[in-house]
What we know:
This protein has 147 residues and is an all-alpha fold. Helices cover 65% and strands 0% of the residues. The protein has 7 helices and no strands. The chain has helices at residues 3-13, 22-34, 36-53, 61-77, 83-88, 93-117, 128-133. Helix 2 crosses helix 3 (36-53). The longest helix is centred in the C-terminal third of the chain and has 25 residues, at 93-117.
Amino acid sequence: MTDDQFLRHLDAYGASPERWPPELRAGAEAALARSPALRAAADEALAFDRLLAGSPPAVEDARIDRLLASVGAAARAVPQDGLTLLLLGRMPRRTVAGFCAALLALGWLTGGWLAGTLPAPAVQAPRGQELALLHDDVVTLFDGESR
């Protein structure tokens, strides 16, 4: 087993030989016997395995409160990104104002152009039925009497 293979397997299986596949244990033991650097890496992995196997350290509530307060203060100190920033990026304010004015002028010009080219709604002459409803002898559905 080469040194790179041993280190890759050490990362995958940890320092405990019981977790290694049986076919790799003999090669790992031979690699450990010949290389002091691999023994040092195995010792570091063993210390890391012990750290993972242990119980987590107790954290005081006051420390959590201090941490949350400092994170909140840092978040409030940074300006929040608004819609303009998301749409236009980090441009200077004058550039953004000019861009908005140009869009407003473009909308105004386009609206004026379309108003001159689109046909206006035609006024229709009253139909005969509409004129009949205005006559005094017509009975409506609401009161049953003529107007």
